[in-house]
């Protein structure tokens, strides 16, 4: 029917239906869909010989009660809330904020730098409310902006490589690598119907990755970021295959995905630096040379954990703490040159101290300078330098015992269980893929952090999302977590694009 429906009973019916829809941006599409359906019904009845007015009345009677229809549609297409995930997120964020206020373990935090939790929280709320809708509606602008940002990162990378100066590339490259996970997930979803172009782009990106990683990439990107990236991508692609988002024979897709990611991860175990880090991760005791080594910190943490009780904190005598602080407990029977030396404050004793240090260094030793003695030594003196943020779970066990520490681990585990239980409920292909990849990034950071707290540190320490954060990491992790919230929130109200083409340059 070419006639436009006038201000009649049909118009009032449509208004009554759409008034029940709580998510207002969805009202026009529902109005249009119902209007089209009613028009078809009216045309059918008119073809049977009914007048326009009679056809309208009969079509509306067949539709049923407008309020009931609108309520049913609203129930099926309403914004979803996630109270359990919101509660445990707020609890862990508050825990991290309180701990950072209490410990103040960096110069930035000593000058109220712990307030970065505030912009982190603001970014989380903004991403929850606007993140997924912005991604769907402005994906072309976002894609262009992300391309420019990564191009700038690559330029910084090569400037650092050829000049020998880092230009802050280590921290930015770490987080840029993790942010690649959701970027690649969205590109993979967009390109799944045009495999030839995607495979070409994938091969070019893989070649660039391999070139960088086999030259100086591990020095600038970090093995930890690369490992989290590869594990997250592997999990996400397998999830997309399992749900049928990537079509094809599943066994073939699984095999190709695993082989491709093993190839990309080969620098982590084929290069000399990669093999050294894996050796230090699997058998830290075989890679200890001085008290400055991360592997020594891991063995020290394991030793102290073994001496901590279930119900109360670590109890040591001053003499025992001095042995742990100087490293004498480990190096006295192995290589005494690496035992720490207590600093002296008088001029004569300071000169003797310097001469002793120089003599030991000439022999190949690297002793620590110990600025405490048995009469004032504390637990904080004997722990690794960055114990507050790197060993937060272990410190909790040292202070309160194993049971409170296990409760903390259980709470963190509960957060991840709730997170993935919400992700599992997301039905949209793009929404579920995006949420799952963001959850994977958060999960693997937590896994590597937990392993490090039990003495098995792989490369550099990651952050513990929500609890042990830095000024850049909290922005990344709040963005990732916010996208999970947002994808779940708008899963039933935003129609995701199905057949749009991947964005290419040129």
TrEMBL record:
Species whose genome carries this gene: [Clostridium] celerecrescens 18A
Organism lineage: Bacteria, Bacillati, Bacillota, Clostridia, Lachnospirales
InterPro entries named among the record's database cross-references: Perm_prefix_1
Keywords carried by this UniProt record: Membrane, Transmembrane, Transmembrane helix
Top-level taxon: Bacteria
Membrane-crossing residue ranges in chain numbering: 85-105, 111-129, 141-160, 172-191, 198-221, 227-245, 252-270, 391-418, 430-452, 472-490
Parts forming coiled coils: none
Protein name (Swiss-Prot/TrEMBL): Cell division protein FtsW (Lipid II flippase)
